[in-house]
Amino acid sequence: MTLDYFYGQAGKLFSFYRIPKALFQEQRFQNLSTDAKTLYGILLDRMSLSVKNEWFDKQGRVFIIFTIEDVKRALCCADNKATKLLRELENFGLIERKRRGLGKPSLVYVKNFSSNLSNERVQNRENHESGSPKNACQDSPKSRCNKNKKSKTERNNTNPILSDELEKMKNRKLLEEYFSRSLEIELLLRLYPDDEDTIYQIVDLLVDTCDSKRKLIRIAGDDKPAEVVLSRLKKLNADHIRFVLDCLAANTSPIRNMKQYLLAALFNAPTTIQLYYQNKVNHDLAARR
C-alpha cells in the first residue's frame, strides 16, 4: 500500500490523543511502559466526555468509566494485558479506581501529576502555550468579535459523535443495573469474596455482549444468532453464576481465551447446571459406598 505525503497543514486534519511529554521526559516515569503511557493519554481524552456529562463526585472531582473491555478495544489487547496496564498506572499513582459494587463498573480517577513538575518545566509549557504578548494584542476588535461568534456557534452545535457516545453509555448503564438485580451481585460478592474480580468481569462480559450490534455471536466456535444468545444470557440468575464460578474453580487445565470460555459457560449454564450437580451427587454417593 502506497500512502500519500503530507502537504502544508494537512496533518492538522487528524484528531489526536494527548500524552503529556512529562511521561517520557521525567525520570520517575522511566520505567512506565509505553503502552501504559498511551493508555493514560486515552483516559485523559475520555475525561472531556465526563466533564461534558458533568460526572463529578461529591468533592467535585472528575471521574470516568473505563472498563477492562474498553481498554482491550482501545489498545487491541487481551484481558491480561489490559488488567496489567491499569494496575501499572495505579502503581505509578496516575489513576485511582473506586469499586462501587452491585456489578457496576469501577469509577476511574485520572490523577493530575503536573503539580509535582519542576517550576522550570511548568514555566516553559506556559510560555509555549501562551505565545508572545505582542501577538496576543494584535487581534482587532472585529476579529475578536468574529471569534466570539464562532465559539458561541460551536458550543450550540451538537456533536454527533459525543451524542452517540452518551447514548451508548446510557444503554450500558441500563444493562448493568439489569444484571446487577437479576444476578444478585451483592449476594454473590458475600458468598464469593475471593472471586470479586471474576464476578465483575462476568458482569462486564454480559453487558458487552448484550450491547453488541453484531448479528452473530460466536459461542464455543459456533456462530449463533444474536437474538438467541441475548435471550439466553438475560435469563441467567445467581445460581447460574455460582455454577460458572464452581466450574472455574474445578478446572485445572490452562484456559487460552478466558473471554470465550466464560461466554460459553454462561450461555450453556441453563442447560448444563442440573446435569453438573447431579453428576457431583452421584460421584459423592459412589465414593461413600
From TrEMBL:
<dbReference type="Pfam" id="PF06970">
    <property type="entry name" value="RepA_N"/>
</dbReference>
<dbReference type="InterPro" id="IPR046059">
    <property type="entry name" value="DUF6017"/>
</dbReference>
<feature type="region of interest" description="Disordered">
    <location>
        <begin position="120"/>
        <end position="161"/>
    </location>
</feature>
<feature type="domain" description="Replication initiator A N-terminal">
    <location>
        <begin position="15"/>
        <end position="89"/>
    </location>
</feature>
<feature type="domain" description="DUF6017">
    <location>
        <begin position="150"/>
        <end position="287"/>
    </location>
</feature>
<dbReference type="Pfam" id="PF19481">
    <property type="entry name" value="DUF6017"/>
</dbReference>
<dbReference type="InterPro" id="IPR010724">
    <property type="entry name" value="RepA_N"/>
</dbReference>
<protein>
    <submittedName>
        <fullName>Replication initiator A domain-containing protein</fullName>
    </submittedName>
</protein>
<feature type="compositionally biased region" description="Basic and acidic residues">
    <location>
        <begin position="122"/>
        <end position="131"/>
    </location>
</feature>
